[in-house]
Amino acid sequence: xxxxxxxxxxxxxxxxxxITGRIGKVPKLVGDEKKQMVANVEKQxxxxxxxxxxxxxEVREIPPQSRGMYSSRMRSYKQEMGKLEADFKxxxxxxxxxxxxxxxxxxxxxxxxxxxxxxxxxAHLLDNTERLERSSRRLEAGYQIAVExxxxxxxxxxxxxxxPDKITSYEAEYIFKRSFSKVFNTNFKFYNxxx
Length: 195
Known about the structure:
With 195 residues, the chain is mainly alpha-helical. The chain has helices at residues 2-25, 31-61, 64-93, 97-104, 110-152, 169-194, and strands spanning 159-162, 165-168.
């Protein structure tokens, strides 16, 4: 009986070595080749499980006084089988570096390129923030002038000369508010798109 067990052990060792080699190849394959390799590994894993079951049956038939040694071997084989199955699961979803770089369009310098891109975006954002602050200060100053002009006169419709047209202070305030909201909304959208 122990000779059957040892024969199963040898078969299990050869089979696990083949499985380990194939598991290492799975991440490097794509498409149909990968599917075929995955199917082969699954078949071999099933064979290994059957071998473990046969070995377990053989251990049960061994006399109790010498069964301890074989039981400890079985535990180590079951652990090895669990490790193989876990490695296989990881290899099925893993991609090799070449495949990952090809899929992501990565040329190997991605962290440097991303850092440069982030610095450029930050500089652009700071420039736009300064521009927004300057525009806001100018608009506030213009609004203050309009309010002072409007409150300084008792005439309900003070005329303001802007270029060739004359407009009232109410119209000027309306134009100011409309332009301020346009500038604010444009910059708000711009910042949201960057972030």
